[in-house]
């Protein structure tokens, strides 16, 4: 466990990327209610539960046209 | 040529406005940062996990393990994200009808395809480079042995495979209709390539092997001389696919 803490400065940026990506996707999701398929709850779950890939799926195949 | 330049400009602006850059940047940053770290921490993670009294002890990881993770992530997650981001590159504009106006104003159809490919290739190269540099810096920082034979060729193979996939996406977009037809056709073609890649006699002629043998090139199991032909063939194939894309797009009803 101690070694994991030792590498914390390297782990934090990775977590940051995941959080920022999820946050950007969630903000977009809240502001838009048009999706190519699925509903809001489904996309919220995907964005929050599937790291990295979730928000990417939302942006690439989930979100409707702006 | 003027149409080409204008369309390149339009594509570059579009890229910054529809979240594509966020997706690609975060994906490749993530791959670059997490691969060496995961390789380094995997033995620790296994020692923390108690799997019903079963303890797995892994040998001390080396820089090679970092690149093993990197190539695995790049060729799977990296290529999948590339597919998702660029699958709508043509179909989005065709279904929305935004291209129709430009084409009726005299924009050449060749310019559309070539500009789209140029911009996509530029972005793939840029983000691939970012991921690779971060991965290498992390690997140097975390591991002692950090010099590899044929590293450049191995990375170049993977990059070239990405360039091939982009051409395939554009081509698929010209021969299919609808939103997901292009993505589907590209995936089908890649799966055929993957299946063909399990026959070792065919690997030489299969672009897919450029994305699967990267680690073997580093370890020397696959010689660079064996893959030079594949690289040449892939360049030829990419060009051919693009020429076909140009042809089919000319014939296409917009």
UniProtKB/TrEMBL annotation, chain A:
<feature type="transmembrane region" description="Helical">
    <location>
        <begin position="41"/>
        <end position="61"/>
    </location>
</feature>
<keyword id="KW-1003">Cell membrane</keyword>
<keyword id="KW-0472">Membrane</keyword>
<dbReference type="InterPro" id="IPR027379">
    <property type="entry name" value="CLS_N"/>
</dbReference>
<protein>
    <submittedName>
        <fullName>PLDc N-terminal domain-containing protein</fullName>
    </submittedName>
</protein>
<dbReference type="Pfam" id="PF13396">
    <property type="entry name" value="PLDc_N"/>
</dbReference>
<keyword id="KW-0812">Transmembrane</keyword>
<dbReference type="GO" id="GO:0005886">
    <property type="term" value="C:plasma membrane"/>
</dbReference>
<feature type="domain" description="Cardiolipin synthase N-terminal">
    <location>
        <begin position="20"/>
        <end position="62"/>
    </location>
</feature>
<keyword id="KW-1133">Transmembrane helix</keyword>
<feature type="transmembrane region" description="Helical">
    <location>
        <begin position="6"/>
        <end position="29"/>
    </location>
</feature>
UniProtKB/TrEMBL annotation, chain B:
<protein>
    <recommendedName>
        <fullName>ABC transporter permease</fullName>
    </recommendedName>
</protein>
<keyword id="KW-0812">Transmembrane</keyword>
<keyword id="KW-1133">Transmembrane helix</keyword>
<feature type="transmembrane region" description="Helical">
    <location>
        <begin position="150"/>
        <end position="171"/>
    </location>
</feature>
<feature type="transmembrane region" description="Helical">
    <location>
        <begin position="74"/>
        <end position="92"/>
    </location>
</feature>
<feature type="transmembrane region" description="Helical">
    <location>
        <begin position="113"/>
        <end position="138"/>
    </location>
</feature>
<feature type="transmembrane region" description="Helical">
    <location>
        <begin position="183"/>
        <end position="202"/>
    </location>
</feature>
<feature type="transmembrane region" description="Helical">
    <location>
        <begin position="21"/>
        <end position="39"/>
    </location>
</feature>
<feature type="transmembrane region" description="Helical">
    <location>
        <begin position="228"/>
        <end position="249"/>
    </location>
</feature>
<keyword id="KW-0472">Membrane</keyword>
């Amino acid at each position: 466990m101690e070694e994991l803490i030792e590498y914390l400065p390297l782990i934090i940026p990775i977590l940051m990327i995941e959080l920022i990506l999820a946050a950007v996707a969630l903000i977009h999701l809240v502001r838009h209610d048009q999706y190519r398929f699925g509903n809001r709850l489904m996309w919220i779950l995907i964005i929050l539960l599937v790291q990295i890939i979730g928000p990417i799926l939302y942006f690439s195949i989930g979100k409707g046209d702006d | 040529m003027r149409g080409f330049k204008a369309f390149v400009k339009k594509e570059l602006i579009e890229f910054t406005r529809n979240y594509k850059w966020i997706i690609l940047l975060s994906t490749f940053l993530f791959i670059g940062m997490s691969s060496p770290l995961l390789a380094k921490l995997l033995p620790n993670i296994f020692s923390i996990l108690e799997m019903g009294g079963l303890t797995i002890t892994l040998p001390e990881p080396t820089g090679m393990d970092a690149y093993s993770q990197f190539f695995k992530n790049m060729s799977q997650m990296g290529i999948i994200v590339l597919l998702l981001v660029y699958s709508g590159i043509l179909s989005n504009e065709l279904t929305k009808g935004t291209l129709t106006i430009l084409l009726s104003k005299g924009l050449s159809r060749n310019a559309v395809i070539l500009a789209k490919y140029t911009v996509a290739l530029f972005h793939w190269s840029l983000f691939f480079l970012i991921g690779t540099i971060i991965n290498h810096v992390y690997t140097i920082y975390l591991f002692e042995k950090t010099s590899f034979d044929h590293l450049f060729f191995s990375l170049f193979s993977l990059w070239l495979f990405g360039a091939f996939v982009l051409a395939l996406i554009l081509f698929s977009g010209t021969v299919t209709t609808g939103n997901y037809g292009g993505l589907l056709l590209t995936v089908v073609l890649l799966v055929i390539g993957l299946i063909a890649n399990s026959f070792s006699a065919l690997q030489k002629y299969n672009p897919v092997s450029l994305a699967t043998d990267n680690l073997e090139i580093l370890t020397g199991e696959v010689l660079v001389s064996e893959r030079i032909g594949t690289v040449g063939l892939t360049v030829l194939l990419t060009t051919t696919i693009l020429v076909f894309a140009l042809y089919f797009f000319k014939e296409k009803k917009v």
